[in-house]
Amino acid sequence: MTAIIGRKAPDFTLASTEGKQISLSDYEGKFVVLYFYPKDMTPGCTTEACDFRDRQAGFAESGAVVLGVSPDPINRHDTFKEKHGLSFPLLSDEDHSVAEAYGVWKLKKNFGKEYMGIERSTFIIDKEGNLVKEWRKVKVKNHVEEALAYIQNELQ
Description:
The chain has about 160 residues and is of the alpha+beta class. The chain has helices spanning about 45-55, 55-60, 75-85, 95-100, 145-155, and strands at about 15, 20-25, 30-35, 65-70, 90, 105-110, 115-120, 120-125, 130-135. Strands 2-1-5-4-3-8-9 form a 7-stranded mixed sheet. Strands 6-7 form a two-stranded antiparallel ribbon.
């Protein structure tokens, strides 16, 4: 199943920094902000994660949970979460199956080298589990504010 606006979001179950497996279906009845990022401890990913952390109260007030997903293993996620005081679960998609289901596992180019990796993207899933909004090829600056504004203005 592929992620398509207006349809059920692909469900998944992944290991989390909460010490347990987390499934998308665990959050039925809440809005979910599902964001995919390339790698823990890198400048852009750190800025994005800290922006989500700093706006966590606004998401919570709107009935939304934030879930961050990357291919990093849980031990690296744990270090990243602790170092930056992140207040939401990070999920480990080491085999990138969830990234593939959401269409964010892409061929990337950096300094002339090609490799497969995560295309920074964010998805909003409504209380019934339907995909209602997506941002692909995200630029970190102001992105979290835009996602929060969408939930506050469009979904309330």
